[in-house]
Design goal:
The protein is built from six helices and ten strands. With 282 residues, it is an alpha+beta fold. Bound molecules: zinc ion. The site of zinc ion has 7 residues, from loops.
Length: 282
């Protein structure tokens, strides 16, 4: 799953290559890619054609391009890519949607191997598309309210990692960056949210912002070469990961072997010494 830094890198690419251009044609090549567009693929294509893109925005892992009052909304799912390139290059079999522009310059292709991603045109969605209005601001947005998020975390009855992954509480944090931020803040993933002190939550979000900033400057994390920028290039932040995917390797802070625990059908990676297990309940 691409996480916030990977999606932000795609947003920056769209901002650079697509904003200010007018969409000429839209080909919806696979109905599944536009399944969230209730009126169907033909309506999607007709509604998007001829529109000028005025921005490239993001909330959590959703991206949208304002077109007039409306929005072209995108989610990359597990394997989606938004790729800019020569409009004459061959069409790969994974391209689900293709947009050309009136200036005959580079086209935009939505390629998605596993087809969990989707595009839709949301009427009146330019400022914030309705389908994602319930998603909380992410820690990189000016609207992110640390005091309010801290209060909500401390009111929860779940482990701290589970709270970090709850997109209605704070968006954009997934499994990889949650583990990395918890390691930096020296908190165990199962610590009951109610017991984490406000100062530790402040430290944790400082760590989230740090790890996001470092990942952005490395071009994101690319585990299976599916997470790429709009030019098809992978990031290299995985080399800088401290715990995620490092089970059995020495902690970069204390040398203890990194531990992997099962967590919500996935894994949680942590250092047994820097992030001691909470005493109660485990
Ligand atoms: Zn350690």
């Amino acid at each position: 799953m691409p996480e916030l830094p990977e999606v932000e890198i795609v947003r920056r690419g769209l901002e650079r290559y697509v904003v200010g251009r007018t969409i000429e044609t839209v080909q919806a090549l696979h109905p599944r890619a536009v399944r969230r567009h209730a009126a169907g693929p033909d309506d999607f294509a007709a509604a998007a054609a001829g529109r000028e893109v005025s921005g490239a925005l993001r909330r959590g892992k959703y991206l949208w391009l304002p077109v007039g009052e409306d929005a072209l909304l995108a989610h990359l799912g597990m394997s989606g890519q938004l790729l800019i390139g020569d409009p004459l290059r061959p069409l790969s079999p994974h391209v689900r949607v293709r947009l050309t522009f009136t200036d005959a310059g580079p086209d935009l292709r939505f390629s998605d191997q596993r087809t969990f991603g989707h595009l839709s045109l949301v009427a009146g969605g330019a400022v914030l598309p309705g389908p994602i209005a319930h998603i909380a601001p992410d820690p990189l947005e000016p609207l992110f309210d640390l005091a309010a998020v801290t209060a909500r975390i401390r009111a929860r009855r779940s482990g701290i990692k589970r709270a970090l992954l709850d997109q209605s509480l704070v968006s954009g944090i997934g499994n990889i960056y949650a583990d990395e931020a918890l390691w930096r803040a020296q908190l165990h993933w199962a610590r009951p949210s109610q017991q984490v002190r406000p100062a530790a939550i402040t430290r944790l979000f400082g760590a989230v912002q740090e790890v996001f900033a470092e990942s952005l400057s490395a071009g994101g994390t690319s585990f299976d070469s599916l997470y790429v920028n709009v030019n098809g290039q992978s990031g290299y932040f995985e080399r800088a990961l401290n715990v995620y995917g490092r089970a059995g390797q020495p902690c970069r802070r204390c040398g203890s072997p990194i531990r992997r625990d099962p967590f919500m059908n996935r894994s949680a990676f942590s250092c047994p010494k820097c992030q001691p297990r909470p005493r109660a309940g485990l």
